[in-house]
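Subject: design request, 314 residues
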């Protein structure tokens, strides 16, 4: 059983001891991180993942409601107050507007409220995730229709249609850089990867060969994945030292390549780079991008013997 990770804010002395003793008596495995203010609590959440926030209702730097409103979507929040039992005068921690409290003589009952709080939050989080996924899938459906319209054979300019499509993908995925790479070569010539069209987010430097004059590397290990219609995902931090130097020039934290294939061979790929986050790509995102790559090939590539994207930057 993993330890319960608690963030405890502005509870010290006897109050802190009451929480620790009650959890220990109930055989909880737990670790406590202390914060003495809202600011320090927020900083702690940026450095570590917690299961529950337990906060004093009185904070030195403002209302506890501010803290709960910020962190409430991230983890269950339990607000407690310090006081004295009116009958025994012993120190207690109590949950406002409930009958749950902790004292030296009664340590267990409040855990029922803690567990209920965690269960309610978990159910609400599942509902939020389900709604988010539904909205995200609806977004992908709408974006796919827009891509199909943009890539319709009636559009006069292939390059413009592709650029508009790539820019739509960049916007939908909130990504730094999207581009097309084509594969050149034959049995008698070395395989070369050529980056052609590219779009970038505002403020992100272009890495088109026209601007950077950097040869795109060819990884033989990608052949197996691309030939099987599988994407390639890379996180910069997980790269081997001899591979990091090239990717460092692109200011890349995470990378996804969706193959563009024809007759069971891959002709190139659509590259997606996030310069901000070591990103994990969801199944729905990859499925959506595979559909777009099929559209790109079907509408503009499969009927041509030569690559549709002429390399004007080499």
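Subject: RE: design request

Done. Sequence follows.
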């Amino acid at each position: 059983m993993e330890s319960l990770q608690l963030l405890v804010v502005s509870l010290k002395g006897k109050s802190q001891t009451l929480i620790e003793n009650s959890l220990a008596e109930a055989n909880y495995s737990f670790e406590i991180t202390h914060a003495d203010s809202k600011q320090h609590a927020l900083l702690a959440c940026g450095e570590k993942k917690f299961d529950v926030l337990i906060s004093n209702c009185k904070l030195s730097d403002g209302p506890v409601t501010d803290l709960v409103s910020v962190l409430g979507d991230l983890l269950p929040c339990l607000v407690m107050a310090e006081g004295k039992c009116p009958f025994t005068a012993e120190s207690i921690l109590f949950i406002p507007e409930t009958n749950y409290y902790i004292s030296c003589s009664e340590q267990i009952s409040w855990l029922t409220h803690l567990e209920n709080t965690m269960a309610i939050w978990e159910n609400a989080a599942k509902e939020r995730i389900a709604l988010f996924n539904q909205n995200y899938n609806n977004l992908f459906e709408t974006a796919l229709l827009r891509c199909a319209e943009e890539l319709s054979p009636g559009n006069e300019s292939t390059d413009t249609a592709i650029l508009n499509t790539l820019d739509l993908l960049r916007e939908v995925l909130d990504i730094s850089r999207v581009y097309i790479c084509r594969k050149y070569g034959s049995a008698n010539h070395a395989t070369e990867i050529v980056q052609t069209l590219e779009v970038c987010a505002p403020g992100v430097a272009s890495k088109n060969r026209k601007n950077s004059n950097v040869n795109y590397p060819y990884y033989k290990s990608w052949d197996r994945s691309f030939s099987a219609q599988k994407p390639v995902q890379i996180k910069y931090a997980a790269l081997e030292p001899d591979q990091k130097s090239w990717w460092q020039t692109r200011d890349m934290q995470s990378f996804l390549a969706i193959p563009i294939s024809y007759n069971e061979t891959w002709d190139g790929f659509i590259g997606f780079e996030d310069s901000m986050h070591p990103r994990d790509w969801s199944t729905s995102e990859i499925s959506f991008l595979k559909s777009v790559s099929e559209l790109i090939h079907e509408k503009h590539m499969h009927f041509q013997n030569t690559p549709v994207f002429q390399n004007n930057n080499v």
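The first strand starts at residue 4 and ends at 9.
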